[in-house]
Write a structure and sequence with these properties.
By secondary structure, the protein is α/β, with parallel strands linked by helices. The chain folds into three domains: 118 residues, Rossmann fold; 131 residues, no CATH class; 191 residues, no CATH class. It has a five-stranded parallel beta sheet with strand order 1-5-4-6-7, with helices on both faces. It has a two-stranded antiparallel ribbon with strand order 2-3. A two-stranded antiparallel sheet has the order 8-9. The protein starts with a strand and ends with a helix. About 6% of the residues have low confidence.
Length: 471
């Protein structure tokens, strides 16, 4: 990413010969054009092709029967399909499908190697213990190196291509807006986009179209509340010149998948509800919550019982900790957790918890790292007071305090609170007022963009947080 805050600075591009024609016949692709499910599909195809090539290169591939299995040897189609599913899911869980692709060079090669190895390990374990089938060692080895090479080379080429053909974005408006917008994206973003500004306070914009075309700009971002924003006539002229014109809020939502806190207002809250999927939110999401929560509770029951026994032995007090939290539309409910702190830890009132909190017991530290302390919340999900995915519920005392200091904080619970959520996987757990402000931008993005695809992304990414022990 390069930045040119001076509107008259050279851009490294030759000026357009004619200002009436957009200097480029195409809009260069940016990494932000590769959305998470695009990466998922790309990895799925790469893994499938790699497995198919590996299968065809082995000496005995021609003699393998084309049915479901041949003796104890799996056939080509289910093997290739299984490899594609396992590797693409593993890559998604590892965060390799996120819009922000910050991994480069040897680190990227390492990620590809680990993802390919884990994906192949999963499919081989599944074949052996579920279908009682095996796959040849050479096939596995060829598939492994094929997947590593394919994922690494394709990603490197995409990153190199987008770097050489930078997507140029111009913030146009008052200096206070352009400086604030530029600072925000520089601090938050690291992709192959070049940002420039065109700042005029109370002055005539001049020929905005000429300025934009001379600098090879592809997208103009304006603030509709900015008194020095370009006129509708100017903006329509830019659109007719094959340029993209975006509002600052929409631009940040698409780029960073969060909402800029300084642009949240009542109108945004109202508009965000208009775009949400009511059918999914009111019917399918609830059905998925019940089915997944019941299955997860059955699978985790032995671990919950062992954890409960450890809590009982470790310190005095109840095994299950009950705490009032603020739920959807501000309605209070009782949230269940395995106790991780000493008994009566909040006798003097609710306090922010931190990783070094002395109130946390030895067993509690392990439960928090493994997230097993939150397993009883599956009962909250079945009861309907929580969802699997949603903003994290706060205690009433914190909510009342944060509402006074953070505008629209309560609107993060226009949906049911969740065990995990978009803010949790992107910003961790809030242990201060500033952390809550940061998480609000992710929570409100989730409220607006709520969908099955986003919920699935969050659930898969949560698996990675379990593996890393992060909260």
């Amino acid at each position: 990413m390069s930045i040119d805050a001076d509107p008259t600075a050279a851009t490294g591009r030759a000026p357009a010969k004619s200002l009436d024609v957009f200097p480029s016949t195409y809009r260069p692709l940016a990494l932000t054009n590769f959305r998470p499910w695009t990466w998922f599909l790309l990895d799925f195809m790469l893994a499938y092709v790699s497995a198919a090539i590996a299968f065809s290169l082995t000496p005995h591939s021609a003699s393998v029967y084309t049915g479901a299995t041949a003796g104890d040897h799996v056939n080509q189609f289910p093997y290739c399909l299984g490899v594609a599913v396992c590797i693409s899911l593993t890559a998604h869980i590892a965060g390799m499908h996120e819009t922000s692709q910050r991994i480069r060079g040897y680190a990227l090669l390492g990620y590809c190697s680990v993802v390919a190895f884990v994906g192949l390990l999963l499919i081989n374990v599944e074949l052996l213990f579920v279908h009682y089938a095996t796959v040849g060692r050479l096939i596995s080895v060829f598939t492994l190196f094929g997947c590593i090479a394919g994922m690494f080379v394709v990603r490197s080429l995409i990153i190199e291509f987008t770097s050489r053909n930078s997507h140029v974005v111009a913030f146009v408006g008052s200096r206070s807006y352009t400086d604030r917008a530029l600072t925000y994206v520089v601090n938050q973003h690291g992709q192959c986009i070049r940002f420039i500004t065109h700042s005029l306070d109370g002055e005539e914009h001049g020929d905005l179209k000429s300025w934009v075309l001379q600098r090879g700009v592809h997208e103009v971002v304006i603030d509709t509340n900015d008194p020095d924003a370009p006129s509708e006539t100017e903006l329509l002229s830019l659109v007719n010149s094959n340029l993209t014109v975006s509002t600052y809020t929409n631009f940040i939502e698409n780029l960073l998948e969060r909402v800029p806190n300084d642009h949240i207002n009542a109108q945004w809250i109202i508009d965000s509800q208009a775009g949400s999927s009511l059918l999914y939110k009111r019917a399918f999401k609830r059905l998925i919550d019940i089915v997944v929560a019941v299955v997860a509770l059955i699978v985790l029951l032995p671990f919950i019982l062992l954890a409960a026994l450890a809590v009982r032995i470790d310190s005095k007090g109840p095994v299950v900790f009950r705490q009032r939290r603020v739920g959807q539309f501000g309605q209070p409910f009782t949230m269940l957790k395995l106790r991780t702190m000493v008994n009566n830890a909040e006798s003097n009132g609710a306090q922010w918890a931190s990783a070094t909190d002395e109130r946390i017991t030895p067993v509690g530290k392990f439960l928090r790292r493994s997230r097993l302390d939150e397993a009883p919340q599956l009962l909250n999900v079945i009861a309907g007071s929580m969802s699997l995915v949603g903003p994290r519920p706060e205690v009433p005392a914190f909510t009342a305090e944060l509402e006074k200091k953070i505008p629209y904080f309560i609107n993060r619970l226009l949906v049911k609170p969740g065990i995990t959520g978009w803010a949790q996987i992107n910003a961790g757990y809030a242990d201060s007022e500033q952390a809550s402000i940061n998480k609000l931008s992710f929570d409100l993005y989730y409220v607006k963009m709520l969908s099955f695809g986003l919920d699935l992304r969050i659930l898969l990414r949560t698996i990675a947080s379990f593996a890393s022990g992060s909260r």
